[in-house]
Amino acid sequence: MATDGEITRTVVVFSYGIDWLEQTVDVSDLEGEQPWTFSVLAKQTANGPDQIGLEIEPFDQEGASLGISSLPLSPVQSDWAPVSLSGTADLGSWASLRLRIYGKDAEFWGGNYGPQVDYATLEIGGTDETARIANASFDLAEGFAPSGWLSSRAWDSCQGLYTATLCLGQITETTTTTTTTTTTTTTTTT
Ligand SMILES: [Ca+2]
Ligand SMILES: [Ca+2]
User: Fold this and answer.
1) Three-class SS of residue 126?
2) What pTM was estimated for this model as a whole?
3) How far apart (Å, rounded) are the C-alpha atoms in residues 155 and 115?
4) What ligand is nearest to the CA atom of residue 170?
5) For 75-102, what is the mean pLDDT?
């Protein structure tokens, strides 16, 4: 039996200005030469191609930058798809890692018609380390802003004004759930 339902998810929605959100995670316990991947799910709003960029900056134990790896602002698709940045590093020198997400609308409209972002993930050495990211799904909010994230500008409600900055949007999507019913028939012969 198939049941159509709706789920509402909270996502970050950018506007025409280039904005970013970031947080710094502790990776001081990780060692060795390891591949890493930082990614988000993204899609455009209204017309595109809206753009997403990613950046990571590791710091040593004294707080000194060890250099920045970045994915420049790149077009996203009309449906949800991963955007990722990968590399390999000697994690013995990494104490913390700043994760940053950039976004920019492709149109010249005033309002939150830029790329939508959900589910930041971090994988290191083939292991899912997303739990190190606070509020990676952006579902927790303090006022208009997602908890745990710093940003380039103040957050507001999603709107169609030229003053629009960053907002948390409530996106409703249709889901189909398939349920399998098992019927057991017992026949007793007397
Ligand atoms: Ca979410
Ligand atoms: Ca757009």
Assistant:
1) coil
2) 0.88
3) 15
4) 1
5) 96
Q: Does residue 115 have a cis peptide bond before it, meaning omega lies within 30 degrees of 0?
A: no
The ligand whose atoms approach the alpha carbon of 76 most closely is 2
pLDDT for the residue 109: 83
From the CA of 8, the nearest ligand is: 1
Say how many Å lie between the CA of residue 122 and the centre of ligand 2: 26
Task: Answer yes or no: is pLDDT of 85 > 70.
Answer: yes
Distance 180 CA to ligand 1 centre (A): 28
Average pLDDT over residues 20-27: 98
**C-alpha 82 to ligand 2 mean position (Å):** 17
> What's the pLDDT score for residue 178?
58
Q: Residue 41 Cα, ligand 1 centroid: separation in angstroms?
A: 10
Q: Tell me the one-letter amino acid at 162.
A: Y
* b/e code 16-44 from CB counts within 10 Å (16+ = b): beebbbbbebebeebeeebebbbbbbbbb
Give residue 190's pLDDT: 47
Q: Work out whether the CA dihedral 82, 85, 90, 94 comes out positive or negative.
A: negative
- Average pLDDT over the chain reads 91
The answer to whether 73 and 18 are in contact (CB under 8 A) is yes
For residue 71, how far is its CA from the centre of ligand 2 (angstroms)? Answer: 19
* Ligand 1 midpoint to CA 17 (Å): 22
